[in-house]
User: Fold this.
Amino acid sequence: MAYVITQACIDTKDQSCIDACPVDCISADAGDRMLFIDPDACIDCAACVEPCPVDAIFAEEDLPEELAAYLEINALHFRNVGAAQERVNALLPAS
Ligand code: SF4
Ligand code: SF4
Assistant:
């Protein structure tokens, strides 16, 4: 299990969650429109949830069905940044 960053983060990226994470498993690369949680490093502590101003972070088991794609997208970012960026742009095209 892991926590998952979802659509509300796109083009928000205020990074409040990064400061809250005790294991430094939240990141973004240049060109990313949102941040991502590394599911292999997340310890399920929930510390990142409350600081997020747009309620973008969910426990995997509480992920709303309409945001289910972000589970794979968060993991994908840590294997293939470009592919994750393409998935994000497909779900919410840049304005
Ligand atoms: S749940 Fe805890 S370990 Fe996982 S991303 Fe959030 S703050 Fe980091
Ligand atoms: S606190 Fe929320 S909006 Fe800000 S970067 Fe983290 S997930 Fe994105």
Summary: The chain has one domain: 3-91. The radius of gyration is 12 Å. The domain at 3-91 is CATH 3.30.70.20 (Alpha-Beta Plaits).
